[in-house]
Structures are given as C-alpha cells and as structure tokens.
## 1
Amino acid sequence: MTPDEILSVVPRGKEFVNKLQVLFSQPGGIRVDDVKDVNKSPAATRFMEQAEMYSQDEAGYKERTQALLEFGKISMDLWQGIYDNADAELKAILVASNFNPCREPRTKGTSQLRDGYRVDPICNMQNAVEHAHNMKRDYENIGYKNCKILSPAEVMALDPYLTDFCKSHTVADQAGVLTWRSDCIALWRPGGCLDAQVFLPKLYDYLKKTMGTYADELGKTQNCFQLHLGKEVQGVEFGKNGDKTIVTGLRFADGQVIRDNNCSYVFCPGEAVGTLKKFGFKEPAYAGFAGASLKFYIPVPADKIAYYANFNHCMEVHQVGIVQPFQSRVRDGKIDIAVAGTKAFYADQKPNKNEAFGKNRNLLQFNIVNEVLPECMSLALGRDTKGQTLTQADLDYLEKNNLVKRWVGTRAVVYDGFPTLGAVYNHEGVEVANARVTTHLGSGGASFGPASVTVSRGFKNQEVLKNPVMSKVLNFAKSDRVADQHRAAKA
Ligand SMILES: Cc1cc2nc3c(=O)[nH]c(=O)nc-3n(C[C@H](O)[C@H](O)[C@H](O)COP(=O)(O)OP(=O)(O)OC[C@H]3O[C@@H](n4cnc5c(N)ncnc54)[C@H](O)[C@@H]3O)c2cc1C
C-alpha cells in the first residue's frame, strides 16, 4: 500500500524495448525465452509499437507520472477514510486483515511502526543513497513530510527483527558503532499494507449482511450483494436506446444469455488483458507483466512464542531491478511472511509457476527473505541459514511440507502504465451509454483501488471533475487512447 505502487511495473518506451532484449534474470531484464511466441504475438507487437511511440513524449510522460503519484496519495487518504469512517465490524475486519495505514504519522514525538510510515531497506545497490534521496523527494513533493534516512541503530530500535539484516549490511567502527556499507541504506517512508487474502472473503460476508435482501420475481429471498463465481462472460450484446448505443446483454460460457437494457455494466477484467477488445470495445495496447510471490507459514516453536510476540512489519526491500514487498506477522501461531514483486513481459499469455521465470524468481525471493529474516528461514529449514545461499532443493522441501506456497500472477497494464477508467467505446469509437470500465491497474490495484473506483464511477460527476487531479487522471485514463497522440505532442 504505497502512493507509487502503480509505477513499479512498466519500463518506459525505449527503455522497455531495450529491457525486452535482456533476460528477466539479468539486472533490469524482462524477457522470457521459454514461452512460445510471447514476444511476437500480435498483442506483444502492438504493445511494443505503442510503448515506443509513447516514449517520444517526454513532457507528457513526466506529467502522467506526477498525476499518478498525486492520485496514489488520494487513494492512500481514501483507504484511511474507509478505516476512520468504518463501523465497528468493518474496522475489526480491517484490523484482522493487517491493515496498516499509509499516511502522515499521528503519534507526536517518536517515530513508530504501523503509524503511516515504514522502514524500506535499500541494499546491494551502488547508488543506494541517491536512490533513497530520489524516493524521499517524490514523497515530499506529494505532501509526505516525515521521510528520513535511517541509521542502522535507528532501524534496529524501530524493528528489532531487522537486527541480523543490519549487522550483515554495515561496518562497525572501533567503538562498535555501525554505519551502512556504501551500497546500503534505509529510508523511513510512507507505506502500509493489507492482507487481501484475509480481507476479501470477510468484506464479501460483511457487504452481503449489511446490504440486506430483496424478493425476486419468484418471491425468493436474494442477497442484494452477490458474486457469481465461475460465470465467465464470453460476449456482450449491443443495441440502441434512442440514439444512444448501449449494452443490452451478456453471453456466458455455460450458454446462458442475460438481456437487460435497464442496468449499468461495469467491466473490470483485470488480469484477463484483451477482454475489452474481445467484447467489442476499444482497449489501449495491453500486456500482462508476470510477477512472483512466496507465502511462508511457519509454526512458532513453544520456546519462541514470547520472542515473536511483536513480530509485525511491512516494508519493501529495494535491490537493482528488484523491489520486494514484505508483509510479516504472527497469525494463528504461525509466522506468516508474504513477499511478491519481480517482473517479466508475458504479453497476452498467462504465466505458470513452473516456467523459468516463476522458478528462478521464487528462488531469488527465497534468498532475499533469508537475507532479511534469516532466523525465520532457519526455523523453517531446521538449520542455521544465516549467510547461506539457499537452494532449489531447500525451496522444494518447504513447498512439499506446506511451509511455503509459490505463486505467479499477472499485472494488467497498458503501454503508458496508466489505469483505464470511465467511459467505454465500441469499435467505431461511439461511447456506450450504460457501461464503464475500471481496469489495467498494473501493480497497484490494491493501493489505487479506492481512487480508481471513485474516478471511474464519477466520470460524469461534476464534483469529481472539479478535483484537478481526478479530472486529469480521467483524461489520461480514457479507454480509447492511443500512443499516436504522444507522437503528435512531440511533433
Ligand atoms: C505478484 C504481484 C504482486 C502485486 N503486489 C501488489 C501490491 O503490493 N500492491 C498493490 O496495490 N497491488 C499489487 N498487485 C496488483 C494487484 O493484485 C492487481 O492490480 C489487482 O488485483 C487488480 O484487481 P482487479 O480487480 O482490477 O483485477 P483482477 O484481480 O484480475 O480481477 C478481475 C476479475 O475478473 C474476472 N474476469 C475476468 N474476465 C472475465 C470474464 N470474461 N468473465 C467473468 N469474469 C471475468 C476474473 O476472474 C477476476 O476475478 C500485485 C500483483 C501481482 C501479480
């Protein structure tokens, strides 16, 4: 949960094309070679062309990046608003889901974890100090005023569970005072977290209960809020309402067709990039960027229960070409560590955890966890792993014994890295009056969710349009956008 989460996936224009030549396992690389045609499918080619064209508009790119950062801040504030205004039941759900805010600290005086800011270690990076200062400047520009560089002693005081990490990335002077190695530093920066896996089912139950029931046409009681999982939409039917083009119905994979002219349709296909195009709407050049994740669930031994009593933190570890978010805590007597991140270009294909990308990145992530929290990996593997390079056999052992779950997923992105929000247009470019879209949220769907929904839902609402950031975002996020506009801007 950060205001810049959405910026972390798509390398831009020429940089993107260059990085596509570099294998994902090399610094900055995003190419995979073991997935047939992934770099030359029609969707891949169109994405590359549009990304290249977009790269020509330097000023436009800067303006969009700044708009996304400001939009991210709005979304962080909306998340906080959800928490502050929640009833007791929803607040308890957020707490159980490890909601940690991203906002200015509310405790006066000393800095503390879980009060809007967190510790982000930056390590094994030649320009670590410059990287930290650039991050600090970006956050200050959007209104976060409490960023600071942390000394190793400050990091250990804030989070004693990072002691091993601090000791292995520092040098000690004669008096034993630790200073960071030249390629490491830590930044105190705005950032929070949410355990979506816990949150989503609880939120669903809450909404079902809170929104109540109604009697359907057969007199049967139905919940007002419903999810119909497994109902794949295969096609959309269009028609007219007066001179307006509208969606009149949906065709499902199981053969069912539902026709209804009087409802609104919101399309949020997320990972399923290309769905809008398939349904007959305009969709900006799209691609999926794979990302990998590991979720550890390690029983806490009886003699360590007191030691791990306060184990609860979130952070991102930054290395060259890698940002690895961590969410760690003790839950139901187990150490629960979730890490994610890394990226590779998958165009319109779906990644699989046993392809080269998934296997290699999961192993890398495993070793980063061991670098940061060696005590936890030692508990999992039953031996001292401090300073060791862990192997595929170690990871296989943990997976077989249900101590870790491996996963790869896709971030849905557009050539300019911007989400797609608001009105939808048919293939002829005609706005469809009773439909809208909220998708292509890339690596920031959780962080940017509340702001994206507000803008998408309010695309004709004067209150939303009066907000300069929201109206700018809505304009950049139009679902009929093409990169030719950027070539024209450059000219
Ligand atoms: C490795 C990884 C790490 C990430 N880390 C973060 C992070 O730290 N912070 C953050 O904010 N975000 C993060 N994200 C991004 C975030 O997970 C996504 O942006 C978010 O889940 C997108 O939500 P969505 O609802 O738009 O799409 P999705 O979650 O993809 O949901 C789309 C839904 O639509 C359904 N659907 C699609 N097509 C059809 C159809 N034809 N018919 C019926 N249903 C259909 C799908 O089944 C799915 O349920 C990460 C993503 C990955 C892969």
## 2
Amino acid sequence: MSRRPFAAEATARGYRFARMAYDSALHARRRAAIIEQMRSQGGGVLLLPQAEEKLRNNDAEYVFRPDSDHLYVSGFEEPSGAAVLVVPPQGPTRFVLFVRPKDPEKEIWTGRRAGVEGACAVYGADDAFPVGELDARLTELVDGAPRLWFRIGSDAAWDARVSRILVDLRQRSRAGAAAPAEVVDPARLVHELRLVKSPEEIARLKRAAEITAEAHMAAMRDGEPGRREYQVQAEIEYAFRRRGGNGPGYGTIVATGENACVLHYRAGDSQLKDGELCLVDAGGEYDWYTADVTRTFPVSGDFTKPQRALYEAVLAAQEEAIHAVRPGTTIDAIHELTVRRLTESLIRLGFLHGSAEERIADRSFRKYYMHRTSHWLGLDVHDVGAYTLNGGARPLAPGMVITVEPGLYVPPNDTSAPDGLRGVGIRIEDDVLVTENGFEVLTAAAPKDPREVEAVCVR
Ligand SMILES: [Mn+2]
C-alpha cells in the first residue's frame, strides 16, 4: 500500500474544506442505508448533534474531535451544529446540516469554514443553515414527524433543546403543530451499520494498524534502562503523527514495572529499569479510525526466564483466542476460552492450585485477569454496536473488527507468586477482522513472538 493513499486521494479530488479524506459517495451510501431503515419503520427525523469545542483551561481549547455518529453520516469535521435526516413516510427525503456560518473575521483566527454554502456544495446537504437557527429550524423539521431518533442522555444542553422543541410543538397543537409520538435511540439505526465495516473502513483501520505497529517497534527500540515513560510515549506519538495519523486514538499507556498492574495507567515519569517489563497500550488514529494495540517488552532487551514463561502463557492464550475468531462465534465464547487457558497456565506456573474448573468456578483467576478479552473497534476505540442480540451473546459476522487482549497482572504484594514475578503485568492485544472464513489480524506487523520482540529490543 502506498504511504498515504487517502490523503493523496483527497488532494486529487480537490476537496477544499476537508482536512483529511472525504468521500462524498461513501457518505451518501451510508445515508441511503439509514434512510431505507427509517422508512421501513414508518419514517421520521434523525437528529445527530455535532461535538462542540471544549475548553481545557481558561480560553484554551482541547484539540477538536468530531462526534463519531455525525462524522459517519456526514463526513463533516467542523465543530457545532447537527446533521439531520428528514424521512417522511412517502416522498422525497432531506439531508440537512447545521454548521458554523462563514465569518471572514473569525476564519482569520481559527481557520476556514465550509459554511452553509460548503455544507451543500461539498458535503451534499440538501439544505444547510447556520447554528444560530437551530431551535427554530429544527422545530419546523420535527413538526409532524411520527418519530424523532435522538439519543437522550449524551449531552444535557441537547436534551434541553429537544425538550424545548417538543414542548413548543405540543403547546401549538391547537394551531396544527404535531410533536412526534416517540423519541427513539438512533443506536439501532447508526450503530448497527457502524459495527460492520465496509472495505473503505477496513482500509483506514489497516493504515491505522500499520502506523501503530511502527510506533510499537519505536517504543521497543527506545525503551532501554534509564528512559522515562513519557519519553517512550513521545516516540510513539511522534510515529503516529509523522506518518499522517491524527494522533493517539485514546490515552497512550506506557507502564513500566508494577505500573503495568494499573489497567488504565497513563504514561507517567517512572524510569524504565533493567530487569523490568514495560507495557505499552497505544493506538494511532488514521482518518478518525483507531487501532488498539498492546505489547509488553523487556527493558533490558531480554526476558528473564520467569518473565518469559508468563509472557508465553499470555501469548499462547491470545493466539488460540485469535484462531477462534470466525463468523458465528461470540465474544463471550472467545473470552471463556481465554479464561480457561490463562487459568490452566496460572495453575501450571504455581499461582493457583487445584483444577482449572474449580478456579474458574470460584473466580479466583480474576486476581490475575480481571478484564474482558474483546471489544468492538472502529471510529471509537470502544466502538459502538450491541454486544447482545435477542438476549444472548451476539454472533460475529464478516466485517466486524474486535480486539483480542488477554493479560496477566501479578499484584506487587502477592506473596503466593513465584519468584521474580511480583508486580509483573503483561498484556498482548491485536485488532482482528472477522472474514468470511475466519479472521485477519490487522496488527500483525507489530512483533509479539518473544524472540522477535527481543530482536527489536537490541540494546
Ligand atoms: Mn483494547
């Protein structure tokens, strides 16, 4: 694959407003699929708010990240406003964008805006309005619709706005206005589509995976004795950005020694020490799709014998779990298999005693393995989509992407642990695409075989 296929494609097509790739046909296809479902349910209005810029401190803002649902439907990358699909039971549908209007004065400070003109000309909206007209225009759009698809509970200001619109329509019912009879969570419309990835999405996830594999190798090369966690973090995030990624798709974890036993530890200032393992959980985001990868490497460049035994136990469980990925199986089944294999290894290595059945039944394995094995992956690191279907675990289907991420974490004060393993945390995580016949590991370029890891960690 060429180095930056989507950026190059975007430039060739001459999109003036999109920072990265924007594919008008792709987004139009997504809207058509959603419209078809809305119509099959009697029609209505789908309202997807865009994220707002957020203050970090005083008047400085966080780097803006568009709302994933809005982005999926619109491809629009600017803050504020909303995307609306108006689908009457019969007749023509409308795609409406509310956007920040063009403002030459503000654009000098914060960059170019598509404006209402660009929302129509570039992003394919049938109508576009400035955000200042949201309340009045939305009330008109929702008036008479049988139902409103809107996610209550994500944003208090939006909940209040929707309430105001509903109250306004109810109060004007004698004058002929009609509030929707139902407010429905759009997760079933949008998240179910997001769960099954198209070839375009898989290509973006593969690019994110490539960038991420290079970042993990950079971390292994850099993470020698004396380094600080934040320095390894810098190597990783440099690799993401340098190769055209947006940056990290979630907070980068660099955890050396017993910091690895804190599951959501971030890169701190601990010094990497000879004889320790360093756990790195980091994923680059490319075109808004993120990878999610964990590797654990020896700071000295070589695993000690007990470290290697524990590492191989995690790796064997992970390999077996990955090979179990295929259409029809479930995340629950993959997790149960992983728990079984890790528990057997914990007994073999002397952490637990008795039989695997007993230690699974009394849940004592959870002292060393307390998290789940898999989650959906896509625009969001913990991506959307229902984990259950008809009251049971959901069967995997081609196009779904999951992580497989077993780990073992030995508490620092665990007196029952074998010598040399107290405070050791190991996790190995890959991103796995469900294919027609089985699976494809998207993140295979990041080394995990202990010999290959040691080869990258040459000191
Ligand atoms: Mn993960």
